[in-house]
Amino acid sequence: MTAESSGPVPTPIAMAYGAGQLGAQIFRDTPAVLLPLFMTTMLGVPAWQSGFVVLIPKLWLIICDPMVGAWSDRLKPRFGRIPFLIAGAVFTSLAFFALFANASYASPMQAAVILCILFFLGSTAFSVFSVPYLAIASELSPDPHQRTRIMTFRMVFTTIGVLIGVGVAQPLIEAMGGGAVGWRGMGLVLGMVCLVSMLVTALGLARASLIASEPAQGSLLSHLATVRNNRPFMILLATCFVQSVGQASGYTVIGFIYFYVVQAVWIIFPFVLLMSIAGIASQPVWLALSRRYGKERCYVAGSLIWAAVTASWFFIGPATDVLMTVPGIGALGTQHVLILVRGIIIGIVNSGFIMLSLSMVTDTIDYERSQSGVAHEGVFAGVFTAAEKLAFALGPLVGGVVMSAFGFVSSTGAPVTQTQTAITGIVLLYSLIPVGTQLVSLAIFSRYRLPQTA
Questions:
Q1: Are 30 and 190 in contact (CB under 8 A)?
Q2: If you average pLDDT over every residue of the chain, what do you get?
Q3: What global pTM score does this model have?
Q4: How many Å apart are CA 341 and CA 387, to the nearest integer?
Q5: C-alpha distances out from residue 2 to 47, 212, 340, 346, 370, Å
């Protein structure tokens, strides 16, 4: 586990690394998308309160993730990072199932408190996996293009994770009987998918050669000071944080968009399927473009196209015509077709700029290694994942506050009819709010400069 890496990273290693993101993406996305829906339509938890259920555990991760990173750095010379991956995989999967296992609580407040505790435990377990997981990416190769290649594998499994965690999860609830039984069944099935995929990474990387570096010395505070002094990393961190808050606010209302606005829940799966296929197919193109034009330019281009397409969601509504009939799907109206076209474009650009941002994170860590000989990979990864998780917790909070401000009405047992004002709030969360944060993040990113190393 400590041999110096050289040459191309073997494809089986790159694939094993990427596989873990399937389960990681499900744990990140499915609660973000469906937990607010579960709480507000099944448990009667007010929309604003559901945001705090997600936020409170994530606040803990601001401390937890860097601590896990420092801990894994300290234990790496003796045990490597694999024990963290195994433990994180097991307990993350159990927590995922527990979140959706029960739909009967004495009161909405009790439901909110218990789900907050369960999500706190699950988020902690996920830190034990996700922090060393990102740290390993910077240790698999000293070549920045090889690290981008590794991230393309991770992005492929990210996309599959989105397909399952967002596109399959909600239809799976209905397919398994709906109601409490359907939610419980979905939690069990996707929890098992999380477990298997994350263990594939843990076991597949057990014999991987990693870049050697000097053991980290000093306290966590001194390590955090090193992170703070790495200007390229801090700019990238701020960029991704602001961007993720907006994206997470949009994730929060995906279920609401297709139920209340589009009034066609069935289109979620083909939408996410096309988005996933486009995202996977475009990865070699993004790899080639980043080699030719640089990661930074490609990142900005992908982000701007994503913002333009996302702005167009403001004009969506239910289909009022039949434009075509597709075998296996059925009748599609103009709005349905436009949704699917958006899915293809978003799949291409979203997978590109997210992959490139993670690749640039590994570049900033490698830059630290070249300057001091000690990369503090775990601490850097811990700070980055803590910010990402906090952003994806603030997203539901923003979503809950906006929905409540626009008059969204919570319910128990099933959804209820909403006013047009409430629906407008949902659409804003899915369109103009994420666009605004994306543009702010690009303004921050304009200051990103990575010094060249010999």
A1: yes
A2: 88
A3: 0.76
A4: 32
A5: 48, 5, 46, 39, 17
